[in-house]
Amino acid sequence: MTVLVRVRLAVLERTIASGQVPTAGEIAADLDLPIAMVQEAYAKLGEAHVFVCDPDDPSRLRMASPFSAVPTAFRVSARGGSYYGNCVWDALGIVSLLGGEGSVETSCPDCSKALSLRVTGGKLAESGSVVHFSVPARRWWDDIVFT
Amino acid sequence: MLLFRSEEHVERSGKPKGAFMTPEQMWRLADIWYHDRDDPAWRRRSADEAEEVFAEIGLNGDFWRLT
Question: 3-state DSSP call for residue A80?
Answer without folding.
Answer: coil
